[in-house]
Write a structure and sequence with these properties.
The chain has 113 residues and is mainly beta. Helices cover 0% and strands 50% of the residues.
Length: 113
Amino acid sequence: QVQLVESGGGLVQAGGSLRLSCAAQGITFSDMAWYRQAPGKQREFVAGISSGGGTNYRVSVKGRFTISRDNAKNTVYLQMNSLKPEDTAVYYCNHWPAVNDYWGQGTRVTVSS
């Protein structure tokens, strides 16, 4: 019943932009967040947005990424600008804090230099 479907990833050159989407079904659409996992590294928090619209970002993406939500569509977005090679990872959405059983397939972002 729980489904989180991420989309919008792809290959982009450094300095480029991508817009990720997360369509949520079967969960309470409350506080949501984006996470990412680079090869050989643990999954890390990227950006979160509360049900009321408050946001938080990891320092390395602050000023470059913007998280938003459309409650009517049960969708969370991540606008990523000025992408860097170190942003390369599989990006996931989940509750904030994350619920382990909710992890989906993610969407892969590759930033070339």
